[in-house]
Specification:
three-stranded antiparallel β-sheet, 15 helices, DNA polymerase, domain 1, single chain, hpI Integrase, Chain A, mainly alpha
Length: 353
């Protein structure tokens, strides 16, 4: 069993023998490795999985199998977040344990440690989901017998943070004090009236606007990673969408783009940072005398405004890039008249008999 160059492709291949699940001896070849070391590492890990148990250190499984596979399947910023959570919250506890030896009791002890650390409910859930996903991966692809996280139960909550939002009056007071800095004013106008995510706003270019039709196309997202500008696809497939803008916003954005000297069609129009906008939120909320909310809460504010004006969950979902059931569930408390309307209609139906 040795690695060698594939003459047809220039990459590395490795030939090997193994015993399958029925006890039969097999011969096979695995191709497409960039280096000899990659081929040999793959074979070592493959043979580990054919011993009936995944008998390798948790740290080795993560570094040599899980990360190399996931990095080709996830967006760069998503992969970096995953690596941070696993490296900081999971590997220090489980890294030197053999993955097939980790028990439900071990998971419970780890959970107790996290619960005592004072993390938010949403962060606790995120950490636990990363460990659960890792064990699920080992079960699906490498024949790990069970996922100990399932019996241990979950911790944290998916949506534990209070949802804050501004009324239209509060936003208008805030927008008034933003007018002294055009880039801030126009950025917040897009965030509020279109309900954009921050990464979507920072990726917008002049080419994304169609002022004849009064629309803006949302088809990418911006991140700043390791001092590099990274533009990726939006968060979800639903996030690819075309948003109709009110006429006043079309006029504002035409005015803003005309102020950008030498701007090209595919240049980003908001070359500001997230920290800049956070600072401007602080300043504007204080000067306007309104409560401080997060930038993402402007998106909640946009949904609230649409609900208040009678738009359906489906129509709102299409505009925001959500799934409509998510809008119904997440913002149910902002549909105050729906239950009353249902009861009244059922009462009328009863009265027909």
């Amino acid at each position: 069993m040795r690695a060698e160059k594939d003459k047809a492709t220039g990459k590395w291949l490795i030939q090997y023998r193994y015993t399958d699940n029925q006890g039969n001896r097999r011969k096979s070849t695995k191709r497409g490795f960039d280096t000899k070391r990659d081929a040999e590492n793959w074979l070592r890990n493959f043979l580990h999985t054919k011993q009936g148990e995944l008998d390798m250190l948790f740290q080795s499984f993560v570094d040599e199998i899980y990360y190399p596979d996931m990095k080709h399947r996830l967006k760069e910023n998503t992969m970096r977040t995953k690596q941070y959570v696993i490296s900081d919250k999971i590997l220090p506890y489980f890294g030197n344990r053999r993955i097939n030896d980790i028990t439900t009791a071990d998971i419970r002890k780890w959970q107790s440690m996290l619960l005592a650390s004072g993390y938010s409910q949403t962060y606790l859930r995120k950490i636990h989901c990363e460990l659960t996903a890792l064990f699920n991966y080992a079960m699906k692809h490498y024949d790990l017998k069970k996922n100990p996280c399932r019996q241990a139960g979950s911790i944290g909550k998916k949506n534990a943070e209070e949802m804050n939002f501004w009324t239209k009056d509060e936003y208008m007071r805030f927008a008034d004090v933003m007018m002294d800095k055009p880039v801030s004013f126009y950025a917040f106008e897009m965030l509020y009236w279109c309900g954009l995510r921050l990464g979507e706003l920072l990726a917008i270019t002049p080419a994304d606007f169609n002022f004849d039709k009064g629309t803006v196309s949302i088809n990418k997202s911006y991140q700043r990673l390791e001092r590099k500008d990274v533009v990726t696809e939006p968060k979800t497939p639903k996030s690819n969408r075309v948003i109709s803008m009110p006429q006043f916003l079309c006029e504002e954005m035409q005015e803003y783009i005309s102020m950008l000297y030498g701007i090209e069609p595919n240049d980003r129009i908001f070359t500001i940072t997230k920290s800049y906008l956070h600072h401007e939120m602080d300043r504007g909320a204080k000067e306007a005398g309104v409560k401080r909310i997060r930038i993402h809460d402007l998106r909640h504010s946009a949904v609230s405004l649409l609900i208040e004006n009678g738009f359906s969950a489906l129509a709102i979902a299409e505009r925001m890039g959500h799934e409509s059931p998510n809008v119904t569930y997440r913002y149910a408390h902002l549909f105050p008249t729906r239950q009353t309307e249902m009861a009244e209609k059922l009462n009328l139906m009863k009265g027909d008999y």
